[in-house]
Every structure is written in C-alpha cells, then in structure tokens.
Design brief:
By secondary structure, the chain is α/β, with parallel strands linked by helices. The chain has 5 helices and 6 strands; from the N terminus they run E-H-E-H-H-E-E-H-E-H-E.
Length: about 160
Amino acid sequence: MKILICGKGGCGKSTIVTLLAKEMALRKNKVLVIDSDESNIGLHSRLGMEKPADFMNYFGGKKLLFEKTKEMKNKWRLDDLPKDYLTEKGNIQLLSMGKIYQFGEGCACPINALSSKFLEVIDLRDGEFLIADTDAGIEHFGRGVEKGVDILLVIIDPSSEEDI
C-alpha cells in the first residue's frame, strides 16, 4: 500500500509519517518512507535515522533528472533500491528524493518529477508499505505526485490567522 501525506506547512505531516511508519513496522511490515519534502531536512531525525544521500543523485542530479525519469518504465521492488541511497532501522527504510540546500539552487520540479515517477513504478508486495512525506502546500497535485498512490491523507490545521 502506498500512502501520500500532504497538507500545509507546520500541520504535522512529518510527525504523522513517523508515527505511521513506526506503527506499521511494529506490526512486522516492511516500510519504505519517502522524503519528498525538498525544503524540510528533519524527517530522518524524527525516525531516529541517519540522513540518506539524495536519490536524485543516483540519476545524475537535477540537470539529468528529467531525462532519466522518462526512462523509468520498469517496475521496481524494494529489494531493487540502491543501498547507497537508503538508511535503515529495523523494518523501516528511508529514501530521500532530494533537497534544496542553498538559496538560488533552483526549483523543486525535478525532485517532484522523480517522486511522481517513483510512486508509479514502485511495486509493493504483501506486508510492504510506502509512506511519502510531501512538501507544504498543494504544488505536488499539479505535478502529479499523487497519481501512483493508494491513499491520499491530507492533514489539516483548523486554525486561522485570526486565532493568533
């Protein structure tokens, strides 16, 4: 099962991803957590794991990513993932699509393109779960990141600026 977690910034997406992943792992499931939030670099620490290398570098980085993702036509299994781009703890694996580390580095479109294509081609078996953490907002809908998932979980924060 593939679950995509989305919502506005600061609503608790990464916390929900962490809690779901840990609960599914406790139930003896194999869990792949996808970090597709290019601006938040803290998901790995919530999971108690080391930060993995950016998966986009497996495809040659941002400059080559669009062309390389077009070539991703075959289904991938969890066992096919390159170990150099994963960190593991118990039944949880973490894969980080990529990050924007510096001002002026460019847009997140390549990272979202990789996330979208990856969610389409990853083929899970019984007892395997994928939980994806997205960036804040709704841009990923326009980029089609949700196309390959089974469940779309939208986290909302009912507060408003008037409440502050």
